[in-house]
Amino acid sequence: MKKGKWKRGMAAMLVIALCTGVAGGCGKEQQESGSQAKTGDVGADRGRYVEREETWPVELADWTVLQIFTSQDKLHLLAAKEEDGKTVLREWEKQESGYADVTQNWLASMKLGSGDWLDARLLEAEDGTQYLYAQYMEEEQENFLGHLWRGEGDTAVEITPEKWSVPNEEWGGYEMIQGLAALNNGTLAVVSYSSMDILSGADGKVLESEQAPAIYEGRMVTEGENVYLSTSDGNGYQIEKRREGKSSDVEQISFMPDGASAAGSEESGMISVGGAGALALSVLKDGTLIAAGEEGIFRLTGGSPEGEWEKLAEGVDTNFAMKDYACLDLAALEDGSIYALFQTEGEVKLYRYEYDPNAVSQVTQVLKLYTVYESDLLKQAAVMYHKAHPEVMISIENEYPMYHYGDTDYDAVYQKLNTMLMGDDAPDILMMDHLNADDYARKGLLEDLEDVVGPMEESGELLSNITGSYVQEDGKRYVVPLQFGFTMTLGRDLAPENMASMEALAEFLSGTDYSYMGKQTTANLVYQFYTFFCNEIVDGKELNREKLSQYMKYLKAIGDNCGIIDAWPENERAADMWNLSAEAKLAFQKANGFMNCMTPVAMAEYIKGDFTAFENRFIPSLEAGICAKSQYVDTAKDFLRFALSAEFQSADGDSGFPVNRQALKTQAAKDRSEFQIYTSIQADDGSYVGFEAKSYSQETADRLAAMCEGLDKPVKEDAKICQVLTECLPEYLKGTLSEEDTIHKIEESLKMYLAE
Fold first, then answer.
1. Is the model more confident about 15 or about 611?
2. Is residue 493 in a domain?
3. 335 CB-near residues (< 8 Å, 6+ apart)
4. Is residue 42 part of a domain?
5. Selection from 439, 438, 479 nearest residue 644 by Cα
6. Taking burial as the number of CB atoms within 10 A of a residue's CB, which of 71, 130, 172, 739 is the most buried?
7. What's the distance, Cα to Cα, between the start and end of the chain in Å?
């Protein structure tokens, strides 16, 4: 399928100590036949849903499919292409002999404005009436505007509600429509980020309107009488069933209330929900719901809230679990087949899912991977490895969802790990982020990874400036990061070399009266800078007073320029990257990959400033280790080799830079012109102005790659040191306590901790 210019733009609005002698191997014995797979060796069940890619016909070679839906229990497509500077749309039907163009005359007559982005949906009511929703930007417009038409013979009658053309008073944009549905009673149900509306299908008049009670994910679907929408709160999904789209008659359907039974299995098992991916929905005429996401494909017969969800396919056996596959649409047919439209790497692909009674699961080993935080990249690695090695399943367990904004209880994490390591439920693979990997290694709980990482470094496959930092004095290494980031310093009116280190920054700020970062608390300064020197000020079990003195002087100079305050007034906070467009002239931003750098690079360009990597230190992430007592050490090592390979690491993302050298080059050369970010920022006069982040130049991408290859040390975290510095430095930074007395105070506070 041709890569189209109809972009899915990104819109934004600003509005433990371990116990020694831990026993027990990892993994489990083979389980009873017929039950769902758990950690360990498993048997095979016959009969399951299988995934197959559909081949696009030659007639659609120049088209981009925007939507799939069903009409008269047949699969239909809405496709677009550009002709003579305009966008034309066509409807196609999948028939036994192939795809046929079934576009009605009114739709064929339409030529839409050809901008950088288009979202279009074709709706069909029970009586055959069709409606087209399209949101795009005309050449003379500054914002995307939604339009609505009703088909009437050869004519497209525009019935756009007036409210869609009225800009939002706060942020200036127009109504952003998330979903529409044509109901049997002649009305249209519409949901946007701000409202839930019922429109007249005849003229688009708003019949009922209410504030949207939630942020809905995915599309709205209907069987004609009810509409269905999904939401999530981080703990699970809820599906709203609204009769005729109205809030006066709403049922909540939990996903999943009592677990899901695997197709062909008599037992049921819980699945985890509330992950990072959205839930795709489809509904049959009798109300049977189909839901698909990273955990798999599920069916709720009859759509009853009291019903039990049936698991049709495991997520790892589908592209729903692939983070670089975005599901655009889901369509289910009465014969049990299911179609999903995906966008991946700029291509649009169609997949069919149907039950094959002869299909057999080949899984013989299930390895458990434990991570504190949910990770899309780990899920992707598990899925891709399973596709290449059908006999191996990587089961991932995490404590916190990806988007967790509360505190992390590491005491509870360590306690749980102790319990697992002492029992039969120990993980085979561990992600050591923010955990004390050295303690694990000293107690013999981690496998040496030198035979995995060493050869890949010697061949030049890996960035040894990153992975080489993990070699111990005995030549062994127990952890390897799969990704890394760095702290990017952004500034205006100062050169990159003046903001590349604490020393350079302190010297520069000492020579200016302008407060480049704005006011800061001691906690702000310590948290921002301590990871760059906390390992430097500790020498064995003692405090290195000379090094501490040096970094205290740097902090004092920086603090003097900022202005130290005791606490922030209500509704105020320290300046960050977004304040660079106003009064701030210096900010720090974590750079987590080429995609992630689009916004800070755009900000540097907007303020006519520059950026650099602070202290040439990297921030490791997904630091992988293998449990020494795992029954599957060889398999776990092979999985790590795959996770470090260019094949896996070349996929673009926004969670970190790859440690694979070729993958770094591949990502640097990637065309990201299809991605854009729109938001509003505050200007120096207090007004709000539009801000757009687009793909940066190849020169900038190469510069970022060179920065990555020049990083030489990891940052270090230590909660105790951070706490002591925060408690002991305020008087020094304000000039009311001498340097010597402050060092003595810090030394006394850390003496027992360092002696442990």
1. 611
2. yes
3. none
4. no
5. 479
6. 130
7. 62
Mean pLDDT confidence for 283-297: 94
pLDDT, tens only, 452-474: 999 999 999 999 999 999 999 88
Of 598, 575, 599, nearest in space to 588 by CA: 575
Q: How many independent structural domains does the chain possess?
A: 1
The residue range of the domain holding 511 is 484-629+643-755
Orientation angle between helical segments 739-755 and 545-562, nearest 10 degrees: 130
- Residue with the two structure tokens 């070399």: 497
Angle at alpha carbon of residue 145, lines to 606 and 78, rounded to 5° = 115
In a domain, 675, yes or no: yes
Residue 591 bridge partners (DSSP): 486
Token pair recorded at residue 534: 């906390």
Cα–Cα separations (whole angstroms), residue 691 to 12, 166, 192, 597, 694:
10, 21, 22, 15, 10
| Residue 266 identity | E
Please write down the HEC assignment for all residues of 623-666. EEEEECCECCHHHHHHHHHHHCCHHHHCCCCCCCEECEHHHHHH
pLDDT tens for 553-581 read 999 999 999 999 999 999 899 999 999 99
**Cα 204 to Cα 182, 212, 603, 698, 747, distances in angstroms:** 12, 19, 40, 46, 72
Residue 457: both structure tokens together: 């470094």
Q: Tell me, what CATH number does 520's domain have? A: 3.40.190
* Within a domain: 555: yes
Residues 199-220 as b/e (b if ≥16 CB within 10 A, e otherwise) read bebeebeeeeeeeeeeebbbbb
List, for residues 482-527, the tens digit of each pLDDT value.
Answer: 999 999 999 999 999 999 999 999 999 999 999 999 999 999 999 9
